[in-house]
Structure of Outer membrane protein beta-barrel domain-containing protein:
Amino acid sequence: MRQTILLLCCFLFLSNILQAQTSGTVKGYITDTINNSTLTNASVSLLRAQDSILVKFTRAKENGYFELNNIKAGKFILLVSYPKYADFVDQFSVDSTKLIQDYGTINLADKGRLLSEIIIKGNRAAMKIKGDTLEFDPKAFKIEPNAKVEDLIKQFPGIQIDKDGKITAQGETVTKVLVDGEEFFGDDPTLVTKNLRADMVDKVQLYDKKSDQAAFTGIDDGQKTKTLNVKLKEDKKNGHFGKVELGGGTDNFYKGQAMFNKFWDKKKLAAYGILGNTGQVGLGWGDKDKYGQSSYQVTDDGGINFSNNGNDEFESWDGQFNGEGIPVAQTGGIHFDNKWNNDKESINANYKIGDIKLSGNRNDINQQNLSSSSIYNTSDKSFEKNMTKNKLDLAYEIKIDTTLTLKLNVDGLFKNSKSNEAEMRKGTDEQGNQLNNLNQTTTNDVDDKTFNINTLLTKKLKKTGRTLSLNLSQSSTDSKSDGYLNSRAEFFTTSVISPDSTKVVDQNKVNNISNTAFKSNLIYTEPLSKSLSAILNYGFNASSGKADRKSFNQSSNGDYNVLDSIFSNNYELDQTINQLGAIFNYKKNKTVFSFGSKFSGVNFKQYDVYTDSSFKQKFINYMPQINYQYNFKQREVLRLSYNGNTDQPTLEQIQPIRNNQNQLNTILGNPNLDPSFRNNFRGNYYSYKVLSNQYFSVNGSYNFTLNPIISNVFTNDRGESISQFVNLENKATTSYFLNSNFGKTIKAIDMTAGIGFSANKNVDYNYINTKLNQTKNSSYSFNLNLSKYKEKKYNFNTSFGPIYNVADASINENSDSNGWGFNGNFWTNIELPFKLEISTDGNYQYNGKTQVIQETFERFIWNASITKKFLKTDNLRVSITGRDLLNQNVGFNRSAFNGNINQSTYTTIQRYFMFSVSWDFSKMGGGEIKQN
């Protein structure tokens, strides 16, 4: 017994000795760089190098001395911080050969005295998470003199900006950019990113912007917009700045741009003008979703928009330029916002005017797969379009007292669009025999007017968390169009040269469509406990619409005054919606959880003026929702959500309006359609480590629709189709999306590297000649990102990787269009002596052969410029630019849908050279333009 106890004591003694031998110490003194004064209470943190987890912490004593003991063997990071001083960061190891890390004296540098030649060991947190907001710190990135916000955002991990200024964050498109939380010219993000100076920015926030009422109450109404908010430095909010640029080039290409901004007190005044035909002008007016929904689509809250037919050649052109054709654009606008009365009142106003002309040609090759054969269609189209638009919006907010706030939004739109299109289409069978031939021209002139007013009243009641909010809105739209359709369709029997039947249309189309809508939503929130609250809402909507469409044939004297009663119609629609909802919200510590549902009952009546007949329908929409968020720590968060929606059949599916604008396809109505139910699951995870500048994100969604509404198409042997919508029982259409990004700074080569993966898949169904066809469309891509910045020398960024596309249909084993592709992008700036700068960027695209398309497509679009900078602040620049130097910018697109394969080529902007002069001017609170 005594021997056992003696052995145990010896073992414990030896263990303590061994442990003491493998335990280390780190120590030192912390002083000021300039006068060597001690920095008492400076914070000293010991972090594990592997994952930046805090191991030990202490503060410096009165003499600046610190010491951390009992450090186990391993690799560690020492972080020393003191207010208004630059951080000190260093990595070291503790092992049997080195148990004591003595730093001696650590001199911290005053941030206010730092010069560009001083090198400090340390990192700054590039980003952090605040609730559902990701916040970037511009001070952690490199900013060149005269750099714009766009140049800053390009360096943010997980965010990409393409050559046109389109911003993608974590796989989703950013559609709104705010300045200090306020609209800045509304719906064109590039007016912020391409014109505001980067050195004015204090921080940039990324989040999903909710509606004003949802932000106040916490109830998710589904209205979310991926948003960047640019917050300016306080000392940059007084003064003025702007830019003027002019350029002229070969082949009559030209551009011009001017922007002026004046900030004083709490006021902002901005004006801009843009003109050119290079396609690189601010055309992102983004009004299509707001002002021009097509068809009679039932929205999530049961609303129905009574507008033009889907795929109607006589809809007004929305003015969007997507690279197809040659644009000539002139736009301008003015912005003003102000706060007064101790910030209790504010106003935000924007006015924009613009004109865009677009012309070009398009060629399409289409393979239409049937159950036992295929039809091959070719199409040649030419088009000329023109749109002129005036838009005004105004927002006024007043805080009546500490508990009551009123916000008023008003906007109006006046638009005229003209279009002229000509198309020749030909269909053949697999042996090359001609089946049909279509020759068609359309002209159209449309005037659109839109007016919206929205009022939000919010009230905080006496009990904390108890609130009441009321949202009221009124909208009206009016569209008048006058156009002509001239169409000749010929149909052939196999082996017969001459057509055996012909359909001819020569008509004047006159449309007069108007809508008015009133919406209301009352929300009450009640705290049930410290962690749980209930949110109740009731909404009432009422709308009415009129659609008078007339088709006139020619009379004997050549006038278009003979009404065609078959293809003319006059409908009136009235509808009312009642909505109830309840959401419960739980929030405690790091967890936020909400669940509940909304229900809406819809009654609508459609009246046919010509036939004096009515079509009525009642239905219930069910919209459950669940949201979960867990904040692991400040820079690590997980979010999960589920939303369900009842999708009612559209009026176009139930009772389509007859039209003769596509003589190869006739649509029949199906009044027996049942609603479908759409389920959507979303999730994302994000983490960021400061010291290693390492980020990781995963974003994904999965959707499936029960009892979906699909098309049932019957096509005869001459290419004529009759289609109808039907419900698909016992099967669901599905889709998913997944995007993941990982990146970090590689210290050995001083380069930031990242990898990204993206995948999406859609499984859809349709009937083709009574046979059920399943189509699978998916895309998988992998990319590698590399970037490096060397101050006053060069800036380099590249992203490249393969893509694999899947497009197959069960209807025809010869319809698969699976194939590999490759995409690559790069851009770089090189600083040369004598204030010269070379900039270049490129895009490489490759599409390989598929079973259907036995041709590869490859192009490399390369742009370059050389710039000479003048003046002390380098803000006067003279440039020579070459766009598409290899002349390979051929408009090209491939797509697959419902078993049909389509390949398009179209007119687009190709090689040109341009000489330009730009001048950035500024006089802000911080003085003339300076480098950070």
Q: What stands out?
A: The two ends are 75 Å apart (CA to CA). Residues 89 and 584 are 45 Å apart (CA to CA). DSSP finds six helices and 47 strands in the chain. The helical segments are 2-21, 149-153, 190-193, 212-217, 288-291, 651-654.
